[in-house]
Amino acid sequence: MTDLAGTIHFRGLVAFPFRPARVHPELRGTIRPPRRSARAGRGWAWETLGRPERAGSLKACLLGLAAVLLAAGPASAQPTLPSDPRSPGGAGSVGSPVRNELRPVPVPEPSEKALRYYHSGNWLWAVGQGWVLLVTGGLAFSGLSARLRTIAQRLAGNWFLTTGLYVILYLGIVFVINLPLAFYRGFVRQHAYDLSNQTLGKWFGDAVISLGVAMVVGFAFTWVPYLLMARSPRSWWLYTGILSIPFLFASMLVMPIWIDPLFNRFGPMKDQALERSILALAERAGITGSRVFEVEKSVDTKAINAYVTGVLGTKRIVLWDTLIAKLDEPELLFVMAHEMGHYVLGHVVRSILLGSIVILAGLFLVDRLGRRLIARFAQRLGFDRLSDIASVPLVLMLIQVSSLVLSPVVLAYSRYQEHEADRFALELTRTNHSGALSFVRMQAENLSNPRPGWFYKVFRSTHPSVGERIDFCNSYHPWASDQPAAVRQDPEAPLEPKPGG
Ligand SMILES: [Zn+2]
Questions:
Q1: What strands, in cross-sheet order, belong to the sheet with 292-295?
Q2: What is the tally of structural domains in the chain?
Q3: How close is the Cα of 462 to the center of ligand 1, in Å?
Q4: Diameter of the chain measured on Cα atoms
Q5: Which of 47, 294, 339, 420 is catalytic?
Q6: Is residue 434 part of a domain?
Q7: What is this structure's pTM?
Q8: Is position 275 annotated as part of the catalytic site?
Q9: Looking at the domain assignment, is residue 488 inside a domain?
Q10: 459 close to 77: Cβ distance less than 8 angstroms
Q11: Dist. CA 423–CA 261, nearest whole Å
Q12: CA distances to 28, 63, 268, 340 from 33, in Å
């Protein structure tokens, strides 16, 4: 199915008041500059190609925020395979022969290995969902969580420290319980499919760092929703949801400077000519003052990706070194234009707004279901109020349930934004063929299934399928047909006034 323009105003989201303002320049170079670009470079892990690795236990401590993170954070898909050869006539870097950008690119058949990866991935996803329910439900209903709270109380003394200590103990225990599944999913399986370059040491080190970050964040912030639950048992979910907005903004601000560098080395781009091309493209897109970083992802994965991250002073475009190695310049610039589309179209702010609505809905469900469960099973649970810190696994279990329910909406909105960013990239670069080739590359490198089934699409896809994206590249070029007067084969050329006109 080809997702063309207006047809993708999908499922239920029409009701949301904040549809992206579309930028539909007739001509390249006429892209409206972002109204607030100088102020707030927006963007946050808007991965173009692959999918971000799961933040692991980090999200577990974010309680309310976990709803949106769980819903939006796709499972463990990771990367890759050696790619197929460059297309004939593919432009290399600067100076190579010009590619016919209107030539369609067929969607490649997925390899047998990619299909196996896809099917086993769906099963693993389902197992992972069940596992979370089992672990959180088990800890809550066995009374273990209540015992853990009693231990924390004895050690800590006051309420604030009890809350923090409980969270640290809880995260430590869950880390150990989850370790086998996480190890299989993040390490064994990735190597089995030849998608990973990671050493065991790096994998484990990253897992421990994630745990450490989760403990620090959990210690520092979990008391907030619990204090609200205690003070305002009826409306805590509303206040927590509202507070999640500044929290999300702050997370985005510090993520690229405090968190990301804990896992990978970031540096300036090595290829300065390429960097200049990217910055020139950014300028044409109306983004000023952005920085481009290269991240050494090849130590972890063979997958390819790029993203926009940070807000205000920390905004930046980040390219995985694997992407630079595997795409040629026109393909890479298309990917960059897609990322810039997220900036210019204000996707991050919109996502935060949607995220807070989803968090509100999720927390509302947690409140209603939680109180019912507590009323019925207080004996078993070992606590009689949601504001008891021992309720953490119960709350997380309910967040898991509500994010499963809400994820189709969140994912549909994400796919919509991704589609709009693809459109933006095509309008900015007019390199349809190169764009399609970048997706062909992605399919090969990341073992993607170009035509996944409905289940995958509804519950797991943050992006339109690779097949849909290639189809769109092949079909979306109004500048080549609809408006003959506006056709410019060389998009770099300034628009000439019509002779005699
Ligand atoms: Zn994107």
A1: 266-268, 292-295, 316-320, 306-309
A2: 1
A3: 9
A4: 88
A5: 339
A6: yes
A7: 0.76
A8: no
A9: no
A10: no
A11: 31
A12: 12, 37, 26, 11
